[in-house]
Each structure stands twice: as C-alpha cells, then as structure tokens.
Specification:
Isopentenyl diphosphate binds at residues 225, 258, 308, 404-406, 448. The active site is at residue 310. By secondary structure, the chain is of the alpha/beta class. It is built from 18 helices and 20 strands. It folds into four domains: 5-181, Nucleoside phosphorylase domain (Rossmann fold, 3-Layer(aba) Sandwich), CATH 3.40.50; 185-193 and 377-473, Cobalt-precorrin-4 Transmethylase, domain 1, CATH 3.40.1010; 197-281, 3-Layer(aba) Sandwich (Rossmann fold); 296-363, 3-Layer(aba) Sandwich (Cobalt-precorrin-4 Transmethylase, domain 1), CATH 3.40.1010. 37% of the residues lie in helices and 22% in strands. Helix 3 (82-90) runs antiparallel to helix 7, helix 11 packs parallel to helix 12 and helix 15 packs parallel to helix 16. The longest helix has 17 residues, at 197-213. The radius of gyration is 27 Å and the shape is elongated.
C-alpha cells in the first residue's frame, strides 16, 4: 500500500500541517477543485484535515470534529477508523467530537446552518466528500472556526480562526500516527472470548428485574467489571451504589456477580430490601468451600488479590479464618497452625495461581484442596486460547475494562509468552502508534467484555487497510446457569 497523503484545502492549513512529515497536498477551496485534485492522486490512504464549520450547538471554536461518515450529494462514505483517530486526538488534550461531516458546495450561512444541524451532522465542509477514495483508508479531521452564533463574518472570526489553526497544529502527532498505522495486516482471533455464562446471567438478571419491577433497580457495585455494560444498564434505569445504606428502604437491590459478605446480606435484610442475588454460581462455590473448611476449624488460604470485590466477599464468609495469599512471596512466608486448606479467586491467571498453590502444598503437606479447580472454566479457556496464538503475533489486543481481573490476567498471559499486549476498554483506546509495526495482531476479550466491542475493534482495524481474519478456536462453551426465581 502507498504511503498516506494528507490533503489540506488552503495554503494556511497546509502550512499548519507540514510538521506531520507527510506529503501534504493543497487541494484548493471547494468541491470542484477537490474533485480535480482527487482525480490526480494515486490510490492509497488519504487524510483530509483543515478548518471546518460547526453545525451542532455543542461544537465550539477550537474543537475538533472527526468524521465517522461523510455525507455528500452522491451518498455516504463510512469512515471506520474514525474512533481510533478520535482517541488519539483526545489523548493529545484536544476536545474531540465524533460524528457525521456534511459535504456542501458553498459557504454555509447562519440561517442555513440551523437547518443543516437538524440532519445530525456535527460539521460542514466543501472538500471531504470529493476526496474520499472507495476501498481505501480514509479519514477526515476538521478543526472548528465558525460555529452556531459565530459565523464567518463576525467580530470574533479572527480569534476563532486562530483557535482552529492552533488545534489543527496540535493534531499533527495523531495524524502522523494514523498515517503510519495504515496498511494491510493479519488478525488472529482467540476463541473463546468475551462474555461467559456467569456474566450473561448477571446482566440478564438486571434486565429482567427492570422489566418486572420498573426503574429504578439498585445494584450494589458494578454488576460485572465493564464500563460499557454498566453504562448501558444505567440508561435502562439501573442505579449503581457502593453500599447498601445508599438504597431506599423497601427498594429492589441486585447483588453483583462478584458476590458479597454475609454482613452485606444482613444489612440488606435490615433495610427491608427486595434482594436478587446475581452472584456467579462459581463464586458461590468458593464461598461454600470457605464455610466448609472454616466450619471444621481450618485456616483457609485464599489465593487472590485482596482488593478485588470477589475476594472481599469470600473473606467475609469467615474473616477470622481466611488468609489472603497474593503471590509466591506471600506463599513462602505465610504462617498457620493446625489444619489448613486453600481456595482461589475465580479470575486468576491459571499458571500463576498454580505456582502459588504448589508452594503452599510443599510447605503444608496436609493442605486440603478444592475437589475441583476454583478458577472458572471461562477464565481458563480464554487464557489457554490466547496462549495458543500469542507467539504467532506481533501484538495482542485484550478488550476489557481496567478493573476487570480476568482481562488484566489475559495481558499477563500474552506477556509471559513474550508478546507485547495492551488492555483496551474499546476501539478508541487503541494507540495508533502501537499498530504501526504490528502486521499480525492477536485479539481477545475478557469474560465481562461485550462481543460488540470486539466487532468494533475489527471494524476500526479494517478502516486502516485490508485485514485478513483467522479464528483460532480452542473449545466451544455450552455452559449455562439458571436464573434466580425472583426474576422468573
């Protein structure tokens, strides 16, 4: 694929973009000149950048609009790499809006601006729709000068134009990174990935509770550790709280998938709350083990991360008997007298957890172990699926939120295989600079990450050039969990 070309309509815009170190073509002002320039350009990635006019009221001078589609008289051109570029611009400290850019053939006046804004477009320009090349990487960045209430012929025109040029110059590193990231690549998809049965059950419980009881339905802590899931449930009427005392007496409360302590259950009962338990059954299994071991007088070593909500809930089953063991160093020094047993947080890295357990077994030969591994099937499957491809790729992208333990463990799994890996909450979190040298990328997602986020990453990468996708399937997951009677 040819190197990317940066297209700037005006001489002053071209001057602002020269620091990008890319070929900058001055297209000329207006659709006719832009079309003539487009006809002369070779096939390859094109990035149109310059000053634009804002249509939406919230788009202000100096803001940057990144087009996710360009609408022109001949139709709509989709821009799938737009979220990647928008994310890069935001990380530069710019105020960025992602949405449609409308192509017109004349300078838009104030009265017409209000009419065009009703279309949902964020900005308007006269060149982008004529410069788009079908089937080629394409992007549009417009730094806003004139806006609603501040047209081109206005006392503030000069200062607003300067604000637009400053933002355009500030955007150069992101434009350079987009250009460097364009090109063909291979994508290897690790499977299984994304939602597990426990996560699907927890989300379904909140959905059903909302349908049955109406909004608001309260949820203690995040139902699962994913910002997108939480945001979508909030839109439907779920209210997330940190503690039970924040819930009005008599209201409906859902316990999150990570489980809670018996003390939390007592607090909810004392407030007369209608409780629906969305604790993952595999977490419940660990709670039962702790009660069984502690009930017979054992000291229970809980292998896990002390700050994680699942561990907090598990410790609460027998706080005087449970000792959290976070790493091998702790396993080598922890002390106990009498009978001992161990359990595990369900979302740990399998090999790391086994290393800790082996140290404990060596130090305490009579150590009782769970009848079946505590690390859940979904965590194990996702780690093994990723391990199978990690050494075949240049970079691993793990889709998941920063507070997701199982997602963070996937990053560690790839790194232990010698492959750099990054955790991204969504496509806009991907650093374009990491993609420039990554011709072969592995992609997976934590058990709490929605599948559509993976699809968006694939679409974003396709917007940078041709992508060949291969699926590496380790196993099929057919496990399902029953729902609590309160939502049936």
């Amino acid at each position: 694929m040819r190197p990317a070309v940066l297209c700037a309509p005006l001489r002053i815009e071209r001057a602002a973009l020269r620091a990008a170190g890319l070929p900058v073509v001055r297209t000329g002002l207006g659709p006719r000149r832009a079309a003539a320039t487009a006809a002369r350009l070779p096939e390859g990635p094109r990035l149109v950048a310059g000053i634009g006019g804002g249509l939406a009221a919230h788009v202000r001078p100096g803001d940057v609009v990144v087009a996710d589609e360009v609408r022109g008289p001949d139709g709509v051109v989709e821009v799938p790499s737009a979220p990647l570029l928008a994310g890069a611009l935001r990380r530069l400290g710019l105020t960025v809006h992602l949405g449609p850019v409308l192509g017109v053939d004349h300078v838009v006046g104030e009265r017409e601006r209000a009419t065009l804004a009703s279309s949902g477009a964020l900005a308007v320009d006269m060149e982008s729709h004529r410069l788009a090349a079908a089937g080629q990487p394409f992007a549009v960045v417009r730094s806003i000068a004139d806006t609603v209430g501040a047209p081109l012929v206005w006392p503030g025109t000069v200062s607003h134009g300067l604000a637009g040029l400053r933002s355009l110059r500030a955007a150069v590193p992101a434009l350079t990174a987009w250009a460097a990231a364009t090109g063909p690549r291979q994508l290897v998809m690790a499977s299984p990935r994304s939602f597990c049965a426990g996560v699907e059950r927890a989300i379904d419980i909140v959905d059903r509770a909302l349908a049955k009881h109406g909004a608001p339905v309260y949820v203690r802590r995040q139902i699962v550790h994913n910002t997108h899931v939480v945001r979508q449930l909030q839109k439907r009427g779920a209210v997330f709280v940190d503690e039970v005392e924040e819930v009005p007496e008599g209201a409906t409360l859902v316990f999150a998938a990570h489980g809670v302590t018996p003390a939390v259950r007592r607090d909810a009962a004392e407030r007369g709350l209608s409780v629906i338990d969305a604790t993952c059954p595999l977490v419940t299994k660990v709670h039962n083990e702790v009660r069984r071991y502690s009930g017979r007088g054992d000291t229970v070593f809980l292998i896990g991360h002390a700050e994680h909500e699942e561990v907090e809930g598990t410790v609460g089953e027998a706080p005087g008997s449970v000792v959290v063991v976070e790493d091998v160093a702790a396993a080598r020094t922890v002390q106990a007298t009498g009978a001992v047993a161990y359990t595990m947080q369900t979302t740990l890295a399998l090999d790391e957890a086994e290393e800790i357990a082996s140290v404990l077994r060596e130090r305490f030969p009579a150590l009782s172990a769970p009848r079946k591994d505590d690390i859940c099937y979904a965590t194990t499957n996702r780690q093994q699926a990723l391990r199978a491809i990690a050494r075949e790729v240049d970079l691993v992208l793990v889709v998941g939120s920063a507070n997701s333990s199982n997602s963070r463990r996937l990053v560690e799994v790839a790194e232990r295989e010698g492959t750099p890996a990054v955790l991204v909450d969504g496509v806009s979190d991907i650093d374009l600079r990491r993609l420039a040298s990554a011709g072969r990328i592995g992609l997976t997602a934590g058990a709490s990450a929605p599948p559509h986020l993976v699809d968006e990453v694939v679409a974003g990468l396709r917007g940078l050039g041709p992508v060949t996708v291969a699926e590496s399937r380790l196993t099929d997951e057919e496990i399902t969990f029953t729902l609590p009677r309160e939502v049936l």
